[in-house]
Write a structure and sequence with these properties.
With 87 residues, the protein is α+β, with helices and mostly antiparallel strands. Helix content is 37%, strand content 23%. Strand 3 and strand 4 form a beta hairpin.
Length: 87
């Protein structure tokens, strides 16, 4: 799964909304990895992404975060989803 934040780069609320929607979708689908493209620009988007990744509900299910060594404008979040209960 991939999200590109370039389209909402100038809209703070839009950035947060896109990140939240991508996370919710990743959680719903239980994807193993979410690719976030924040770009190389001034670093504002990256700081927003970093702040998002520190939220407790995101940290709780993050296994690790890999930064692309060939493109520092993107990162990969690897998830560890809890087992589903059989109710």
């Amino acid at each position: 799964m991939k999200i590109d934040l370039h389209e909402v780069a100038r809209d703070g609320a839009g950035i947060d909304r896109e990140l939240r929607e991508a996370f919710d979708e990743a959680q719903r689908l239980r994807v193993k990895c979410l690719q976030i493209v924040h770009g190389k620009g001034t670093g504002q988007l990256k700081r927003r992404v970093d702040r998002f990744l520190k939220e407790p509900q995101v940290k709780a299910v993050t296994r690790n975060i890999d930064h692309d060594s060939k493109n520092w404008g993107r990162l990969f979040i690897h998830f560890r989803w809890p087992e589903r209960s059989n109710r």
